[in-house]
């Protein structure tokens, strides 16, 4: 299970093969609706057994009992984006109030827990040394275009999504939805006016001015 370091952008015009998802077990955090639901449906249609992680503990235990004893894919999708009160003004005659940091707890601390648990069970299942019986595993983090764009009057949500970037590596992937990075790539989900298939490889970790991202943000 060695790593990989692509030296060129991913060709997003090529169809990808989902056959290796068949018969594998996937856990999708926040998979009951929105983007998470779309991930669940895509994995299920590819033949994966999908566990939808939810705040409903009883249903979570029921689903877990129906799955095999191995985990192959984990999608850390759960996240929130409430109004950010870090910049709120409490009045010139009032003391500043403590900001609500639940966004940090859910979007960043929650992902840290998922990374810890995922990697623990990946290693527990496959061992620490290469052997023929090892099965491929994959951890997918859900970032956001907010990690790259300016987000007026919001600091917590962009900070949590930018915080996904250090986790990226050969076995940890990141998807950055926008308007709505894989194996160290930044696969950017965009409007189809920018990419016919709805996603592109930005080929960067950060971006300077007067680039494609700058043009997309201006648009």
Write the layout of secondary structure elements.
Blueprint: E1 25-29, H1 34-45, E2 49-53, H2 57-65, E3 73-76, H3 102-126, E4 138-142, H4 156-162, E5 172-177, E6 187-189, E7 199-201, H5 212-218
Pfam families: adh_short
Protein name: NAD(P)-binding protein
Organism: Lojkania enalia
Can you describe this structure in just a few lines?
It holds the Pfam family adh_short. By secondary structure, the chain is an alpha/beta fold.
Task: Outline the structure in words.
The chain has 219 residues and is α/β, with parallel strands linked by helices. The protein has a domain of 140 residues. Helices cover 27% and strands 14% of the residues. The protein is built from five helices and seven strands. Strands 2-1-3-4-5-6-7 form a seven-stranded mixed sheet, with helices on both faces. Strand 3, helix 3 and strand 4 form a beta-alpha-beta unit. It is globular and about 65 Å long. About 3% of the residues have low confidence. This is NAD(P)-binding protein.
Beta-strand segment tally: 7
Strand order, biggest sheet?
A: 2-1-3-4-5-6-7
Describe the sheet with the most strands: 7 strands, mixed
Instruction: Give the low-pLDDT segments.
Output: 179-184
Distance between the termini: 42 Å
Shape: globular
Assembly level: single chain
Features:
NAD(P)-bd_dom_sf; oxidoreductase; SDR_fam; NAD(P)-binding protein; oxidoreductase activity; 7 strands; 5 helices; alpha/beta; 14% strand; seven-stranded mixed beta sheet; globular
């Amino acid at each position: 299970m060695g790593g990989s370091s692509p030296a060129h952008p991913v060709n997003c015009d090529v169809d990808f093969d989902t056959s290796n998802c068949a018969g594998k077990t996937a856990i999708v955090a926040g998979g009951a609706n929105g983007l998470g639901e779309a991930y669940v449906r895509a994995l299920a249609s590819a033949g994966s057994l999908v566990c939808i992680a939810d705040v409903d503990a009883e249903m979570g235990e029921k689903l877990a009992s129906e799955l095999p004893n191995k985990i192959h894919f984990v999608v850390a999708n759960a996240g929130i984006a409430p109004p950010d009160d870090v910049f709120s003004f409490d009045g010139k005659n009032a003391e500043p109030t403590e900001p609500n940091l639940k966004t940090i707890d859910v979007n960043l601390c929650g992902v840290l827990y998922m990374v810890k648990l995922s990697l623990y069970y990946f290693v527990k299942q496959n061992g620490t040394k290469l052997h023929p019986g090892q099965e491929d595993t994959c951890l997918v983090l859900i970032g956001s275009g907010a990690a790259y764009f300016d987000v007026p009057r919001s600091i917590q949500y962009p900070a949590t999504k930018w915080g996904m970037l250090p986790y990226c590596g050969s076995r940890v992937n990141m998807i950055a939805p926008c308007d709505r990075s894989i194996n160290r790539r930044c696969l950017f989900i965009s409007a189809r006016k920018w990419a016919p298939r709805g996603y592109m490889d930005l080929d960067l970790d950060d971006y300077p001015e007067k680039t494609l991202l700058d043009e997309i943000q201006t648009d």
